[in-house]
Amino acid sequence: xxxxxxxxxxxxxxxxxxxxxxxxxxxxxxxxxxxxxxxxxxxxxxxxxxxxxxxxxxxxxxxxxxxxxxxxxxxxxxxxxxxxxxxxxxxxxxxxxxxxxxxxxxxxxxxxxxxxxxxxxxxxxxxxxxxxxxxxxxxxxxxxxxxxxxxxxxxxx
Length: 157
Prior knowledge:
- By secondary structure, the protein is α+β, with helices and mostly antiparallel strands.
- It is globular, with a radius of gyration of 16 Å.
- It has a single domain, classed as Thiol Ester Dehydrase, Chain A (Roll), CATH 3.10.129.10.
- 24% of the residues are buried.
- 21% of the residues lie in helices and 35% in strands.
């Protein structure tokens, strides 16, 4: 897989821990949402950039795979790579890792740029597109094994 970019870092807050003693599934989603926010900041769509461009990003689809447990106060970080993109969309792959570099979860996301004046999809502003072009990108033959894989019950043979 292509080298990814670290985009978010934090730790498991006590209120995020569930009755099983580990990070509740809803907070994995929250961390991946924070990760997309951090990515937006990285590409020039922080609060100031959104106002200046009257432009934002919406999530169209997200798929989380839970691979390992995370526990209270555990340090976590997320990395991102771009699987694909066009003039107004990005297909993203986030990995949540711990300090041992174990992958705890993945989030595959399809996001779309939106013109805030019209509320309609629109191409990325030029400055944003320049930042996006600097993000790590994976050739399709090097995609992570879990990317673009449909969910379903595996048939027994």
